[in-house]
Fold this sequence. Notes:
By secondary structure, the protein is α/β, with parallel strands linked by helices. Helix content is 37%, strand content 29%. The strands form three sheets. It has a six-stranded mixed beta sheet with strand order 5-6-7-3-8-9, with helices on both faces. It has a four-stranded antiparallel beta sheet with strand order 11-12-10-13, covered by helices on one side. Bound molecules: adenosine-5'-triphosphate (ATP) and magnesium ion (MG).
Amino acid sequence: MPVIRTEQLTKIFRVVRKEPGLRGSLKALVRPRFENIAAVNQVSFEIDAGEIVGYIGVNGAGKSTTIKMLTGILVPTSGSVQVLGRDPHRQRVANAREIGAVFGQRTQLWWDLPFIESLALVGRIYEVPPARYRQLLKDFEDTLGLSELLHIPIRNMSLGQKMRAELAATLIHEPRVVYLDEPTIGLDLLAKERIRDFIREQNRGRGTTVLLTTHDLGDIEQLCPRVIIIDAGRLIYDGPIATIKERFGRHREITFETSEATTAIELPRDCTRLAAEPHRLTLRFDRTRTTASQIAAAVMEQIEVLDFSLAEPDLASIVRQIYQGGLREVEGNPRS
Ligand SMILES: Nc1ncnc2c1ncn2[C@@H]1O[C@H](COP(=O)(O)OP(=O)(O)OP(=O)(O)O)[C@@H](O)[C@H]1O
Ligand SMILES: [Mg+2]
């Protein structure tokens, strides 16, 4: 039985439409015109126990709104959502006992209390048996390096420390399902690694089901065998990350800054030109057919190059390519 199931899940927000400028603001005040936006639009998916799934999409795609419906904070406009067989909103209390949620951009802990006191409070709220609490605290001290943080108030923590504290507090009642919304946002590489290791460990060791939202493709590659991609509220892909990497990880972009105009340049083999600026040349190439150095050599033969850079593929470009390549969710969907 799936742990999370959504069917045609939809959330419509009614917002005041405002035209630009002061005039627009005044008009919106006097005679507001409303407009509906579908933040989440008929999204259906199922997640099994013990899965770790990446839920990704560009800014405003509808990720957080989905997670809020899964936690019961928001009520769907239509469609349905079930978590562990319950309606998360109607059975909010029962649901809360078995889930945990981290919203990377804000804390749910008491700002001024030393962390250990916050954690103890959370433990009591969830009625974690004292022996179990001590055991988990000890585990987390090792895996999250908590010892050094126990006596610091959240207010004085760095971003990475705060996230470690947050994760410990979210997992101290051993939820079966965890939603992580941008858990590595703003962290340096080392801090990211630590958080990823911890998430992996919770998933493997305890069988915790994890739904992870992130803009960081590194998180996804390292943690999530399966991804669900949404765009403008709609599900556009549900399937293995491997398929995405095969299909879209093949292309790279290289940008040259040049002293002369690049308009007359003859393109090297196996690449296409993207940007058209006079002193800048951006080329897209297929990694399986040519290399960055071959392209660089061919360009430098023709024109003086001041600098060049190689871009890693990002989510926006993957989403763009999904539309262009016509890859539909059904292709990779293990359940279709
Ligand atoms: N409470 C709200 N009232 C009105 N509109 C909202 C509300 N919450 C979200 N939206 C809108 O719904 C859409 C989806 O927002 P959501 O926060 O779910 O996106 P997201 O995928 O989490 O984006 P991000 O990557 O920026 O966190 C956006 O257009 C947003 O402006
Ligand atoms: Mg969000």
